[in-house]
Design a protein that fits this description.
The structure is a single chain. This protein is of the alpha/beta class. The protein has 2 domains: about 170 residues, Thiolase/Chalcone synthase (Peroxisomal Thiolase, Chain A, domain 1, 3-Layer(aba) Sandwich); about 120 residues, 3-Layer(aba) Sandwich (Peroxisomal Thiolase, Chain A, domain 1), CATH 3.40.47.10. It is built from 10 helices and 14 strands. Strand 4, helix 4 and strand 5 form a beta-alpha-beta unit. Helix 3 packs across helix 4 and helix 7 runs parallel beside helix 8. The protein is globular, with a radius of gyration of 20 Å. The structure holds coenzyme A. Pathway: Lipid metabolism; fatty acid biosynthesis.
């Protein structure tokens, strides 16, 4: 008879126990980014909803921003750093492919041997990380999981590209996911559509770049992020309503139960369309951190969550729909209870 393998079971319920963020110091106006792309403050505001964003300095790296956000999350969760036994870093801008950013971040936080790894699901990365973290705790694989969404998109965006330069920005947000008496993270609805893999992509891989160097020498152009803006807009505006409705449904709720909707801060117009088609109740707050933060990809949802709580527009215990989408194309959504913050 085959040996019987033991399996673990963990907490019945999970929740976001704490939240922390890091916003780079330098605030960048539309006028500053408009110059190289022959655009204007007015065009950028109307097409994207962005008024300002933050760009990281050389000292504000994927590691330093992650550590700062994570410290805030650990403090606000009130857990001991030793109780966090897994770190998931969602990012598409950690430009060193090996090793992953997670282990060094865990060590810099003072963790002793925690599991640590990176995941890449574009702008949907944070909600993918949240899904993994919740299931790890429920399965008994981990006690508490640190999920970080972090991006330094100024390292990958071409300041002269009209379709991306005004949109993307830098920052980090982190949460602690752990056991809870009540359900605080609903079932995740997620998926992908690889037929649209070209819609948001690195425009060439490193081997292609090296070949270009051989051919063109100093005229070779480094890889940059490329986006087919109209295709992404159409997909997001028309495909994500069902994802949102399924996530609300699977949480056993209706839109009337939502106190807040915190969509990925992709573009103000996409956010408004999603809220309109869902017919959110009047008292449901819609996150609009894109105005001051721009599109920070995997970092945008925890940053927008912090903004709502800091501004007092949402409060701990509120029920919020999270929906993230982006490169892949990939998406993930779940309903959560907002954490006790600070
Ligand atoms: C990028 C985006 C704002 C461009 O808006 P758009 O209306 O699709 O723009 P188009 O490319 O069709 O161009 C429309 C006009 O604006 C102009 N334009 C394009 N980019 C411009 C810029 N940065 N500044 C000024 N004008 C610009 C074009 O030249 C064109 O002018 P024309 O009508 O005189 O020919 C829009 O497609 C978008 O928001 N897409 C979604 C992107 C997104 O959310 N990505 C993140 C997903 S994670």
């Amino acid at each position: 008879m085959a040996a019987r393998i033991a399996q673990t079971t963990g907490a019945e319920h999970t929740a976001i126990l704490g939240l922390g963020v890091y916003r780079p110091v330098r605030v960048v106006t539309n006028d500053e980014v408009a110059g190289p792309i022959n655009s204007s403050d007015e065009w950028i505001r109307t097409r994207s909803g962005i008024k300002t964003r933050r760009f990281a300095s050389d000292d504000e790296t994927i590691h330093t921003m992650s550590v700062a956000a994570a410290r805030g999350a650990i403090e606000s969760a009130g857990v001991d750093v030793d109780q966090v036994d897994c770190v998931i870093v969602a990012t598409s801008t950690h430009l060193q492919l090996t090793p992953a950013a997670g282990p060094r971040i865990a060590t810099e936080l003072g963790m002793n041997g925690a599991a640590a790894f990176d995941i890449m699901a574009g702008c949907a990365g944070f909600c993918h990380g949240l899904a993994l973290a919740s299931d790890l705790v429920r399965a008994g694989t981990s006690k508490n999981v640190l999920v970080i969404g972090v991006e330094k998109l100024t390292d990958t965006v071409n300041p002269a590209d009209r379709s991306t330069a005004f949109l993307f920005a830098d920052g980090a947000g982190a949460v602690i996911v752990g056991p809870s008496e009540e359900p605080g993270i609903g079932p995740t609805v997620w998926g992908s559509d690889g037929t649209q893999h070209h819609a948001i992509r690195q425009d060439k891989n490193w081997i292609e770049f090296f070949r270009e160097i051989d051919e063109k020498g100093l005229d070779a152009v480094r890889p940059y992020l490329a986006m087919e803006g109209t295709a992404v807009f159409r997909w997001a505006a028309h495909s994500l309503e069902k994802v949102c409705r399924d996530a609300i449904d699977r949480a056993g709720l209706s839109t009337d139960d939502l106190d807040a909707m915190i969509p990925h801060q992709a573009n103000g117009r996409i956010i408004d369309i999603m809220a309109r088609v869902l017919k959110l109740p009047e008292n449901c707050v819609l996150a609009d951190d894109i105005e001051e933060t721009g599109n920070t990809s995997a970092a945008s949802i925890p940053l927008a969550m912090e903004a709502l709580l800091r501004q007092g527009r949402s409060k701990p215990g509120d029920t919020a729909l999270l929906i993230a989408f982006g490169a892949g194309l990939s998406y993930a959504a779940q309903v959560v209870t907002l954490p006790d913050w600070r």
